[in-house]
Each structure stands twice: as structure tokens, then as C-alpha cells.
Design the sequence.
């Protein structure tokens, strides 16, 4: 459904991603793990069209989309949730969702907001609250809800569990699993690898901008070399 072939990308002349290949099948949760600075965020930014791609190919539902602009990728129902600044802190929860719904036809917006709040009861309770007043975990849920509102086919998700307590990480991943069951594929990058790999159908290890390992989530969790190098032994 979504394929990345030999992607090279970076900032100006500095190549950060060196020939990375990834496959996400329909309805899969795929996770890319790797140490800080390995290029995880850079990879998602280049896939979404935010920074230059030097070579390689990206295919989505059989069409080449390598050099399409972010808006065009969004129109094909690919959503991107950045690591930082993924909500509007000074606006309320409801306003954050209203802005995210603007890409939908006018008559569909209200219905999608109501439906999204059903999937996120903790946000529904806090509709009028300023996003900056939410806990870190709730803010991450709001970012997820903002993507979910447009019924994406694929969500590119950057470090959903960064800085969160284990219970909150559990809740975020439960939402990811629910959304996935409804028919959305995920490509998630995480440094906090264990929870992500437990959830994922398939995983990749990215190190210094290159694919190092590829296996089922379970396979990577049980791989001794991966454990030693990337999962803290
Ligand atoms: N805006 C930028 N300009 C130049 N280099 C950058 C920029 N952002 C990140 N980098 C570099 O790209 C590499 C990968 O960073 P990043 O993709 O953020 O890694 P990760 O998300 O895995 O922690 C790092 O060496 C980082 O210094
Ligand atoms: Mg990052």
C-alpha cells in the first residue's frame, strides 16, 4: 500500500537519510526505531514532502508520490503528526479540531468532530479547555485526534510516547490500535522502542540514516543484537 524505495534525503547539501526502504501493507502498523539523531524525524519529514528528497521513490496505492507537496499528500489522505508543535496550544481542544476539519467539505465538518470526540472521550470532557492546559499525554491524544478527523488511510506519526509516563503511553497506543482496526495504517517512529515494537506488525531499525534490521515487531524484540544495541540490553 505504501512503499519507500532507496530514499535519500536531508537538509540542503547535508544528506541525513542514506538509501532507506520501507514497506507498509494495508492496515499495518509499522514502527521504525532508532537512537536519538538517527534520522527518524528527518525520514518522516522527507516522506511527507517537507524537506528535499535527493533520490529514491515513494509509492502510495500504486501511484508514485515522491515529489508531491505536503498538501497533495494530505489530499491523498496521508496525515503527518510531527514530533513537536503538533497542536495549537493557545486554542481550545474544540478549536484545534475545527481547524483540522477545515480541509473537509463544510457539511461534513461538524459530524466528523462529533464522531472524533466519541473516539476520544477524554478530549470530549475537555472541549473548552485550552490545549496548553492539557497534560502532555492529552496533548498527544489531541494531535492524534486532529489527524484522525480527516479519516486518513495512513498516519505518519513521530514519537507519540516521547516524555510520557507508562500509563499514558499505554493509552496512546490503545487509541492507535483502535484507529488501526478501523482501517488506518500507521508508520510510527519511536526511540521508546519496546511498546512500539509490541504493537507493530513489522519493525525497522534505523541507525545513522540507514536500515539496519527489519523483522516482525516480535522478532526485533527478541533479537539479541537489537536488544543489546538499541533496547538497553
Ligand atoms: N534542520 C536541520 N538542519 C540540519 N540538520 C538537521 C536538521 N534537523 C536535524 N538535523 C540533523 O539530522 C540528523 C537526524 O536528526 P533527526 O531526524 O531529528 O533524528 P531523530 O528524529 O532520529 O532523533 C541529526 O544529525 C541532526 O543533527
Ligand atoms: Mg526525532
Sequence:
Amino acid at each position: 500500500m505504501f512503499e519507500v524505495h532507496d530514499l535519500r534525503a536531508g537538509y540542503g547539501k547535508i544528506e541525513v537519510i542514506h538509501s532507506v526502504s520501507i514497506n507498509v501493507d494495508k492496515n499495518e502498523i509499522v514502527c521504525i526505531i532508532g537512537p536519538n539523531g538517527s534520522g527518524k524525524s528527518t525520514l518522516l519529514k522527507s516522506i511527507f514532502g517537507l524537506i528535499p528528497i535527493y533520490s529514491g521513490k515513494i509509492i502510495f496505492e500504486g501511484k508514485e508520490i515522491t515529489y508531491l507537496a505536503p498538501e497533495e499528500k494530505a489530499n491523498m489522505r496521508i496525515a503527518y503528526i510531527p514530533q513537536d508543535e503538533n497542536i495549537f496550544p493557545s486554542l481550545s481542544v474544540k478549536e484545534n479540531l475545527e481547524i483540522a476539519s477545515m480541509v473537509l467539505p463544510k457539511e461534513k465538518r461538524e459530524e466528523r468532530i462529533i464522531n472524533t470526540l466519541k473516539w476520544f472521550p477524554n478530549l470530549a470532557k475537555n472541549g473548552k479547555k485550552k490545549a496548553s492546559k492539557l497534560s502532555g499525554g492529552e496533548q498527544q491524544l489531541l494531535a492524534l485526534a486532529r489527524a484522525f478527523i480527516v479519516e486518513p488511510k495512513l498516519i505518519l506519526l513521530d514519537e507519540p510516547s516521547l516524555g510520557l509516563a507508562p500509563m499514558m503511553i499505554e493509552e496512546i497506543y490503545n487509541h492507535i490500535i483502535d484507529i488501526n482496526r478501523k482501517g488506518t495504517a500507521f508508520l510510527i517512529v519511536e526511540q521508546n522502542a519496546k511498546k512500539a515494537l509490541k504493537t507493530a506488525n513489522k519493525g525497522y531499525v534505523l541507525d545513522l540514516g540507514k536500515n539496519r534490521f527489519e523483522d516482525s515487531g516480535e522478532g526485533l524484540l527478541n533479537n539479541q543484537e537489537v536488544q543489546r544495541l538499541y533496547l538497553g540490553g
Summary: The chain has two domains: 1-77+152-233, 85-151. Strands lie at 2-11, 14-24, 29-33, 53-60, 63-64, 78-81, 154-158, 185-190, 202-207, 210-216. The pocket of magnesium ion (ligand 2) is lined by residues 40-41, 83, 159 (CB under 6 Å). The domain at 1-77+152-233 is CATH 3.40.50.300 (Rossmann fold).
